[in-house]
Amino acid sequence: MTVALLANPAARAGGGTGPAERAAERLRAHGMEVAIVSGGSAAESTKLLRAAIELDATAVVVAGGDGTLHLAMQEVAGTGIPLGIIPVGTGNDLAAVAGLRELDVETATDTIAAGVTKDIDLARVTRADGSTELFGTVLASGFDSRVNDRANAMRWPRGGSRYNIAILIEFLTLHGVPFSLDLELADGTREQLSGDLVMATVGNGRTYGGGIPICPDADPADGLLDVTLVRPAGRLHLLRLLPRVYRGTHTTVDEVSTRRVRSIRLDAAGVTAYADGDPIGALPLTIDVVPRALRLFTRDSP
Question: What does the angle CA 292 – CA 1 – CA 52 come to, to the nearest 5 degrees?
Fold first, then answer.
């Protein structure tokens, strides 16, 4: 196996480089050829990774979080080239799909060396200008996208607690936003919804923000996307809802509704959506599923 190992360009002088080098050494010990790829920016890293794939890479490994994985999946989706994960990020939600979560270079590299893979779906975002981009975990719009924005701007703390603090701060200005939604449901029928929402979330995977199960029943290999909608209520009432969100039991609350869809169009003025933890575009956006687009090294059975 010839591996292109992408190290998070934002962590070259910090948490990403050390784990990448350790992972490379361990993969080489398993008899693999490994080249570390890390540009000075996301664009440069993309260019270098693309060149490595075109040259001879038969697998791609990412030492980083969901944002760096997001970059890599744009290049490997639909190619059959398997993607491995060394979880070094803040959230690591796609790593959880692969049976990984915390940084454990030995477990992560041994998972890759074992060669067990499974094919999972990706979600495709189409912007108003016709441009498209894929994501693997969750798209957030509304309250949770503002939480992402605040969490990304914070320098401390690291890890999932950053999102917890950002959630509490954003609660101080919590408000509903007028949304219009056009959904293609799992059975092929269409549904149109409009009204104020606190948030509209589209999940290919179950979790975001380092393990928050916002779409608790999502299956990234079922050919569908899960939608979680939250209607406005008093701040205190929604604050009491938070513990249920962390347990994944919020979908039975009156203010929360869910749908399982093939595609959805989201529209709301002044709302920027986040996917895989990074901004992906201003609404309106259309999101549809791309079945079995990504081959993932996994600790689980395929």
Answer: 75
